[in-house]
Design brief:
- The chain is 25% helix and 13% strand.
- The protein is globular and about 50 Å long.
- With 309 residues, it is of the alpha/beta class.
- Strands 1-5-6-7 form a 4-stranded parallel beta sheet, with helices on both faces.
């Protein structure tokens, strides 16, 4: 399993940060919630190069759905609501290569640059409040474009088993030798593979499949993230569509050397698993922007405290 350490209560408000948590006492009218951004793609209706711009309805890509799940888990642990403490609209951008969707005034916690888009950033320096980023490559890009970025790295999806008991799946009984999880753009390439699953399935179901596999390969970055978290040996696959930036950013952000990417599933099996993740949740947890949210009294029973192992 990915290793981690902790001192004291990681989920006390003092551990996450100092005062400033809104208590709702400054009632300025209708309550506004903090928008938890999640990218929802519209996939090509036909997988033909000249027709790929013809898009269907929006879908839920499991990796991008992990961000709001993690944030709600952290809020629950802190006894906070999704109501904006400021009484005005706020937006929090978290999991994914989504900084090209960031708008002026957004808060950034663990997001990354998308290396394949023409304009990876559409805001000027000083227009974002950046609490943490996915990795050092994202930090360097943002700093080169005039933004203040603390050296705090980590994909927030790595916190999911710490804040939501449904995802506490490390050590699950193994039910399959191999699982293949492609990036959504690579799905046509692996559709006929008997061990492949769609990244558009329910996030909890995908997490359960990953945790119960002996070996996971794929071009889905968050399949690799969850395999790391659950201690399941894994190997990233080269993607026909995705840029290397996000993978390199994630691995460097976890303090590891860049792994060799497999050409295909058979090559991945020959290479075996990458270096084990050693994860300390404290830095990214302490960077969580708790001050955006109003206090809500008692914590609910939906999520129970999970000790950091």
């Amino acid at each position: 399993m990915g290793k981690s350490s902790a001192q004291g209560d990681l989920f006390s408000r003092r551990s996450i940060g100092g005062g400033g948590i809104g208590d709702g006492s400054d009632d300025r009218g209708a309550t506004l919630t903090v928008e938890l951004y999640a990218w929802r793609p519209r996939l090509p209706l036909v997988n033909v190069p000249l027709l790929r711009r013809v898009r269907g309805r929006r879908r839920h890509n499991f990796g991008d759905e992990l961000g709001p799940i993690v944030v709600r888990g952290v809020l629950d642990r802190l006894g906070l609501t999704e109501d904006a403490a400021s009484g005005k609209h706020e937006r929090l951008v978290t999991v994914g290569s989504v900084l090209h969707f960031a708008k002026r005034g957004d808060h950034i916690w663990g997001s990354g640059i998308n290396g394949k888009v023409a304009r990876p950033l559409r805001v000027k320096g000083g227009e974002l409040t950046i609490h943490a980023v996915r990795g050092p490559r994202t930090r360097r890009y943002l700093m080169d474009h005039g933004h203040d970025v603390p050296p705090i790295y980590g994909d927030p999806a790595l916190l999911i088993s710490h804040v939501d008991k449904r995802f506490r799946l490390a050590g699950a009984e193994k039910q399959r030798q191999l699982l293949v999880v492609p990036n959504l753009n690579d799905m046509p390439r692996y559709r006929s593979h008997p061990q492949a699953i769609s990244p558009l399935a329910d996030p909890l179901e995908i997490a359960r499949l990953i945790s119960s596999s002996e070996f996971v390969v794929g071009s889905s970055l968050h399949a690799m993230v969850l395999a790391d978290l659950f201690g399941v040996p894994c190997r990233p696959l080269m993607s026909a569509y995705e840029n290397d930036f996000k993978y390199d950013d994630y691995y460097l952000g976890t303090g590891r050397e860049l792994p060799e990417f497999a050409r295909d599933v058979e090559h991945a099996i020959r290479l075996g698993g990458i270096d084990e993740l050693v994860f300390r949740p404290e830095p990214i947890l302490r960077a969580f922007p708790h001050e955006l949210f109003r206090a809500g009294g008692e914590r609910t029973s939906e999520f129970t405290p999970v000790p950091i192992e």
